[in-house]
Amino acid sequence: MSTVIDILSMILMSVGGVFCLIGAIGVLRMPGFYTRMHAASVIDTLGATLIIIGLLLQSGFTLASGKLLILWLLIFFCSPTASHSLANAAHRRGVIPWQPDQGAKSSSKN
Amino acid sequence: MHRFHSISVITSLFVFWLVLSGYFTPFLMSAGLVSCVLVVWFAHRMSVIDQEGHPLALRGGVVSYWPWLIVEIVKSAWTVSRIIMHPRLPISPTMMRVKMTQTSSVGQVMYANSITLTPGTISVAIEGDEILVHALTQAGAEDLAGGEMDRRVSTCEDRA
Question: Which ipTM did the prediction report?
Fold first, then answer.
């Protein structure tokens, strides 16, 4: 039984890690400021959730699981707030959203 | 209602403290409980505690809204991941305004945060009863403009 749980949690954590990697690749590949933020949000939603579920399977019914759940709630309340203030600050400073017809020059600059 | 709200705040604080501390001896547990009661009492006297900080009234609506939101997040995270790994990076970024039908500030925050939490859409600014949203793709923008999320948040808010 514990081997099954171990394997399952290993799979979940690996898949979570893959999504974190995809998010990081997205941050590098996307052009412009706002589009990069979209890529980053994959990391703190799907990536973090899968890794936390994998860790929950490892810890079972202990205090550590309670702390992990609190951590998950914290991520889910704080990450959109932080993303919004970052986007809002950029909007107020007049960062212009990247458009497909802009050349490669401006995409590397933003 | 007032008393019920205070008891709920005390319970949440106590459970939070218990989970983080891990002390289960009678003396420390009662000391923790007394601290929680005192904190809530002081907060009441200073009137820094309100319905917004501990929106107990939303508990009924949230139970049905969160599972739906989590499914939406997983779906759009998958879509965004596929776009990232696509060789040609098929994005069509759009800025648009969506109307929000929520009346309370807690409901509006819930809607704006749900938009940001869903990969592919970010709430950039709140202007009156509209949210300025940046979407990664045209399709994602149209999805949001369909207004299902707005409707669900409003339903959740109305249950209060």
Answer: 0.84
